[in-house]
Amino acid sequence: MTDIMEVRKGTAEARGNQFSLGPVIFGVALMLAGFSWILDRLDVMDVRAGLVIPLALVAVGLALMVGAFDGVHGGLVAVGVVLMLIVVMGSVTPLDAFRGGVGERLHNPTGIGQVDTSYRLGIGSLQIDLSNVTPTSRVATIGELGVGELLLIVPADVPVAITAQVDAGEIVMFDEVLSGTEVNSSFVSPGFDQAGETMTVDLDVFLGSIKVVRR
Length: 215
Hints:
The protein is α/β, with parallel strands linked by helices. It contains four helices and six strands.
């Protein structure tokens, strides 16, 4: 009996001391993702979510392959399933839906010359604040977001024409709230066509929300 207990104890100790590369690979993948996000926030490089997510899925798959030699890793399996669903969802989206990086973007031009023709973000929060712009002619711009929240702020005293589209999510256009799939909303100020100084903004979000307010 003593010999059996010693054998079992030795086996348990051997398993406890067994080195697993699975968590190590997954940890390295997380560090690389975090490092890429930092570089993106510092504007050192542009991180594309459409590339990062599939690479993360590959890393999880490698971790599961290596970790299979020392047992089942339920946590990695769960993460792999979630990433796989995201990749599958991305396969049915427009090819450029996730272009523009990851994180939070705030654009606050103070003059008509600072208004870009388009603003784009892959995943995160995109805010376009045009409240400090006084147009001297017709101004037009586009806001595009893959997944997340898009906020547009327009001047209260400038005629605007705004169109918004969300494949799945919600649109809050001033006092009007719409939600669901293939959601579309538009607003045109009275007298827009006759005004010389106007703003035209087209907004497009694949998955998430659009909110338009005046200030």
